[in-house]
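Now for a concrete sample entry.
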Amino acid sequence: MIPLLVKKQYITFLCIACTLCAAMLFSCVNNPKEIEKMSQESEKPVVWGENIEIIFSENASTKIQLITPKMEKYVKDEILTIMPDGITVFFFDSLGNKNAMLEAGYAIEYQLKKIVEAKYDVVVINEDNDTLNTEHLIWNRHTKKIYTNTYVKITTHNNEVIHGEKGMVADERFTYWRINKVRDASLFFPDEN
């Protein structure tokens, strides 16, 4: 026979244990703000930096110089490098001279696909001083081509202005290019004063 005092303590212990278990089960409420905060923390870049300059070289010779005010790298299904405040890229010839340039207000690199996407006021200038203006440009580093399906304006070194409604395709240095669906072309003569 169990003494009455021990029996009361045992029942009290069981009541407290059951109350604690019930409290733990029913206190697990998902706070939407906490879930959003945890989700955003997992979206943080694995690497980031400001005022970045990257030099790509081949056989100890500079080929490309990339400058950006801000860079963020994310690792998900793809390795993404985002340059949200824009980029300036210089291309160099075999003698180390800058011979082409690309500028954009935003860029994202898909590292595994070897694709860089430039957006917002994209400007490309080649070694002949031909200038490409568009709002969206894709640079495929694997095929060494640049292309877009959006409106383009090309101003040649001879002051010819060509508008393309359906984009263009060119080599990565914008030396050889083809415009899709030319809207119009004109020759511009600057005032000689």
Remarks:
- The CA atoms of residues 142 and 164 lie 25 Å apart.
- The radius of gyration is 30 Å.
- Helices lie at 4-26, 32-42.
